[in-house]
Amino acid sequence: MQLRLHDTLTRAPVDLSGDREVSLYVCGVTPYDTTHVGHARTYLVFDVLVRHLAARGRRVRYVQNITDVDESILARARRLGEPYTALRDRYTSIYLEDIATLGMVPADRFPRATSAIPEMQEVVRRLLASDHAYRRGGDVFFRTASVDYGKLSRLPRDEMLRIEAAQDDSTIGDERKEDPLDFMLWRAVRDDGPAWDSPWGPGRPGWHLECSTLALKHLGVTIDIHGGGADLVFPHHEAEVAQSEAVTGRVPFARCWMHVGIVTVNGDKMAKSAGNAVFVRELLPRHHPDALRLYLLSRHYRQPLDYDEADLHHWGDVRRRLAAAARVAVDAGDATSMPPEQQAFEAALDHDLDSPAAIRALTVLAGRLLEGGATYAERRALRTMAARLGLSLEPDRA
Ligand SMILES: [Zn+2]
After folding, report:
1. Which of 243, 304, 322, 397 is deepest in the core (most CB within 10 A)?
2. Distance 268 CA to ligand 1 centre (A)
3. Cα of 58 to ligand 1 centre, how many Å?
4. CATH classification of 309-388, choosing from 1.10.287.1770, 3.40.50.2300, 1.10.760.10, 1.20.120.640?
5. What are phi and psi for residue 170, nearest 5 degrees?
6. C-alpha 354 to ligand 1 mean position (Å)
7. Using 50, 70 and 90 to split pLDDT, how confident is the model at 398?
8. Protein residues within 5 Å, CB atom, of ion ligand 1
9. Does pTM top 0.90 for this prediction?
10. What is the domain class of 16-269 according to CATH?
11. What is the pLDDT of residue 397?
12. Edge-to-edge strands of the sheet including 305-306?
């Protein structure tokens, strides 16, 4: 069977069948607050992808960065009056605990941005040498006119300008730039925040540069799958494609761009800054981790999901039925056959990770098991399918 995923850049399916190792880079968190449902959805989708690839016999090299120096962490630390390193370390630990509680397979590496400052400076140096970048005082900007800027997002220019202007660290009004869309590779430090010496004076790396460099350092010049939330397509991933391909000369930077739809609340994007975030830590005392998984996987990953706790309760009931079905008494039957529901399940995940269809197959099989008279092979299939979705099938906790 063929494993196909939708590629944001070409707007077409990419065939990822084969037997070689798969490299996966997923943009990680900026650790200044706890994990909300939007983050959980994104990382759960990649968790299921990793499990599915592993079940197909593929080795996966999975890198997820931690953006541990960023204007948003520094602003928050200043507001709280605490060193940014303490804030960053605390929320990095909390994030890693949250994803463990949700039963996610950890990435092979969680490199911090600050672990690769010399490599980031090397990328900037090479971009300057090849005229893809230019200096303004101690700041270095990427020259977007030197590449096909916009090829990933395909947004009209006025839309790119509008989104860029809304970024926390926007430089859109900086008239020293050749083009308002040019973005910062290296930021001269003008405040009391952290800074690293560089050929351009003390400063900090730009956010986009951090991910391009960490991907290059840990996974090489071409990545199989580059993922993240759909809100990262522009400007973050657009900038990553531009600078990565400019520095390596290798196209494509990623064979497949995979973006997970955003989580909204009453139609507005869930975000810490919007004040409508629902945190995983608040939900888990009331809801089984399996219920949260089923709920977040019940919509196709490319669609947005409007958060509603009533839906989460519904998936709590489904979760109890699945746990009961995994424990029914069964007949020996034919131990080698694969039930049709499992075939449908595998086909669904192969088809652009269609988790809603996979969950439907799982619940149909659970219904059959609960009716009685099912076979050992059917119960085993249910457990295999549940494990692929990362469901523990643990009964209610006291
Ligand atoms: Zn990134």
Report:
1. 243
2. 23
3. 24
4. 1.20.120.640
5. -60, 140
6. 24
7. very low
8. 27, 211
9. yes
10. alpha beta
11. 62
12. 268-269, 263-265, 305-306
